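Tutorial handout. Part one gives the primary structure; part two gives the three-dimensional structure as tokens.
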Amino acid sequence: MSRDPARVARVLRAYAHHVSTEASTSTIAADLDGATGAVHRDTLSDYLTALERLLVIEEQPAWAPHLRSRTRVRNASKRHFVDPSLAVAALRASPEHLFKAPVLFGTLFESLVVRDLRVFGQAYDTQVLHDRDNTGLEVDVVLESANGRWAALEVELGSGAIDAAASLLRFRQKVDTDRAGAPAFLAVVTASG
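Part two.
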């Protein structure tokens, strides 16, 4: 199957807008609709599959914890480039642009942390996952080792470290530690340490 280079660039740009999110294929396809016409969801899926095979993009799967509550756990994967600098390039974003777009800058920082944790985790047979339930309680990163031990991390570019720590504590309370075990640690990763 041949690929249109201009459409690939548009796909990369639309995907970059949704880095570190659980954006659906339909949402990304809607971002691609424009002057050149609509992109069918199946066509976009083909492009995304090709980009994944080429190791340009990589999803962050959802964790499947044992929860005490009846809250439904969402299982959508988060969208990432294998290196967030590819997202910056696709968006043609300068440092000035990123400083004026703090939400985008924050999602790119989260993606950078995920990338580094994946590299580190490979040496220890550890998966880098995420968690979000239908009440909106989210954990940016759940590290799960092959033996089932786990840890939860929140990633904050700015000064939200205290709020992030509170969400980690709420998350720990919802996990059935009798079945999943207690977390090895809870941590907030910030740009300053």
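Part three, for discussion. Helices lie at 5-16, 25-32, 41-53, 84-91, 95-100, 102-122, 161-174, 177-180. The chain is about 45% helix and 20% strand.
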